[in-house]
Amino acid sequence: xxxxxxxxxxxxxxxxxxxxxxxxxxxxxxxxxxxxxxxxxxxxxxxxxxxxxxxxxxxxxxxxxxxxxxxxxxxxxxxxxxxxxxxxxxxxxxxxxxxxxxxxxxxxxxxxxxxxxxxxxxxxxxxxxxxxxxxxxxxxxxxxxxxxxxxxxxxxxxxxxxxxxxxxxxxxxxxxxxxxxxxxxxxxxxxxxxxxxxxxxxxxxxxxxxxxxxxxxxxxxxxxxxxxxxxxxxxxxxxxxxxxxxxxxxxxxxxxxxxxxxxxxxxxxxxxxxxxxxxxxxxxxxxxxxxxxxxxxxxxxxxxxxxxxxxxxxxxxxxxxxxxxxxxxxxxxxxxxxxxxxxxxxxxxxxxxxxxxxxxxxxxxxxxxxxxxxxxxxxxxxxxxxxxxxxxxxxxxxxxxxxxxxxxxxxxxxxxxxxxxxxxxxxxxxxxx
Length: 433
Prior knowledge:
six-stranded antiparallel β-sheet
């Protein structure tokens, strides 16, 4: 692999990372960020790695390396959160970490007295919020599929409304047996940026299932049991935190406990208006004006400033201020406002338009990649193959056409498209050249 070792290796790594479901457009800040996280040797390896999860044997063949030292290098990268090791029931498959959920979270979940957390925090914040490139590349065209979705707090819905099973945090917990607890990456980042101390404990990042196993295995989180998970959920309800989870209906791998002062997702919605950063729940907050007492507690509780107080019309009782949820996508459906409402005026109701939540990670990654013009990298995933390179260019140009993309995102066509890709994935050989 030495022929790639040159002064532009980080530019090549940047291009490699930009083919993930979350795009990472090149900027001077991004160059500083990745050069601080990856050694030149790391960058050379990642540039050669397939775009899809691959076995050690396949990576060794593509990189033309001895598997023994290669495995040591991959394991070291996993411990730093720069590569994911995924157990498929027979062995580990390795995959380059995207920015999110990926090397941002895992870097800021690390612990150690000599790590340059302040530098990393400044670079991450500067890249994601210091300019428009990152957010516009991922949400500027009205993308609907994001990595995370809001979970409604149970018991905040109207009496006749049933919260869907996959939107119940308690159900997500009951469906798993393996759990982990680690540092909240956003809260840790804000701490090193010098923000005022947060009222929420630093350790609030909870994961489940294979996600928890990855974090525990690589020293990025500690194991906890189901009772502790329930206690953390209760604490988040008491603190009025926004709950968010993996944007899938099946096998969600984590629950985040987000405060408005630290969470990058909530910050992004407030500061940019890109509501797709965090996919809404299937419910939305509505106000019963007859019950509202105008206390304003809901306005202060809303993490994205979606509520405001406005004067009511003159009535027999006189003027009084009532909070009114903004119309449209600005309400996450998290129910945090309803938790604070003393009169029961704010409750969650079904949305008029159906919200698209992917069935599983396979569907989410494919649809997310389609929206962001990187799906071709998952289909033709060998970065060293000239044939794959040609096909990525050809298919990528076709999928980028607005009419093609719009058609594939149509619900009926999308189902057939995904079924075809699932079938292809099932019959594909485990080891590809």
